[in-house]
Amino acid sequence: MGDGIRVAAPCKINLHLGVFDRRSDGYHPIESIFQMLDFGDVLWIDSLKKRSGIELHMGGAIHMDVSVPPEQNIVYKAVRLFQMEQGDENGYYIHLEKAIPLGAGLGGGSSDAAAVLIALNQISGRPFTNPELESLAACLGSDVPFFIRGGTAYVTGRGEEIETFSVPTPWAVLLVNPGFHSSTPEAFALLDRVRAEAMEPAKPLRGRDELLQMLNSHPGNWTFYNDFLEVFLKRGTPEVQQTYRNVLLELKNFGADFINLSGSGSTCFGVFSDPERAKKALITLKSRWPFVKLSFPLARRADTVVE
Ligand code: C5P
Question: What pLDDT, on a 0 to 100 scale, did the predictor assign at position 3?
């Protein structure tokens, strides 16, 4: 084996997420503010040289479903895609240390895939530019291109149009996952159904300037929303409705300046301008919900490390 590379795969939250009408290709245009956080998975990647194949090993606090064949894992797909585009016949050893809950709206799988592309690109002497890598990333999933860039971003299209901002983010984020998974395609389908039945049009675009200006203001003044949250609170199962209400209310009662759902769920979060309050909330909420994590915004991706 050659020099292995360690690469972080941080999670994200969506501070704002507007969803528009389904396109003819089945995807929905979105308008979102993505924020990368300092909590996530870690991957070790090494070239097997002269040996083909992909060896994927899993570890960490979060357990993947072992009945799913490795070829269906997005990490595996990312390696295959890179190899194909590169004509690369090397084999790769990958160890994935999983900390981000699955089906949680935190972009765990997408971040892992982006981390793999970044690491393989480095191992092979950077044959792709970042825009090229982002195009490859878009083939793996709508949220993957954001993770090539990282930081804070205004995201549109189906997720592939990204503008990063350099803004102060002097707040803490408390993530609370209630322990159930949320399926992204099912969430989009529910949103379509609810809107069609109520004959309710999508809300208008907020626009980059308005969202950026809000991001620069105190979180207590934010009027960001998540269209999925509104749909789940109206038409989720009784358990989902009740759980989201309870988690968000608890975050609010503990002094969160802003509360929301991330992505298509199931992780709720509170933004705290006072990190001491967030720490107090962490202690109590930890005893009440299966996954609670205090984290902070990342202004940019951490560099890969050669080990
Ligand atoms: O792109 P990704 O594979 O993550 O998307 C999974 C599914 O989520 C898509 O097949 C589609 O049903 C839905 N989706 C969508 N609009 C988006 C992103 C995802 O409808 N912008």
Answer: 66
Which parts of the chain fold into alpha helices (H)? 74-86, 108-123, 130-140, 144-149, 184-198, 208-215, 227-235, 238-253, 275-286
> Helix count (H) and strand count (E) of the chain?
9, 11
Beta bridge partners of 5: 45, 306
223: which DSSP letter?
Answer: -
Q: Which atom of ligand 1 is nearest to the CA of 29?
A: 21
Per DSSP, the three-state class of 72 is helix
Q: Name the residue with the closest Cα to ligand 1, atom 20.
A: 27
Q: What is the pLDDT of residues 150-178, one digit of tens each?
A: 999 999 999 999 999 999 999 999 999 99
Which residues carry out catalysis?
A: 12, 143
> How far is ligand 1, taken at its centre, from the CA of residue 29, in Å?
10
Point out the residues of the chain with pLDDT beneath 50.
none
pTM score, whole prediction: 0.97
Binding pocket residue ranges, ligand 1, CB within 6 Å? 26-28, 30, 141-143, 158-159, 184-185, 188
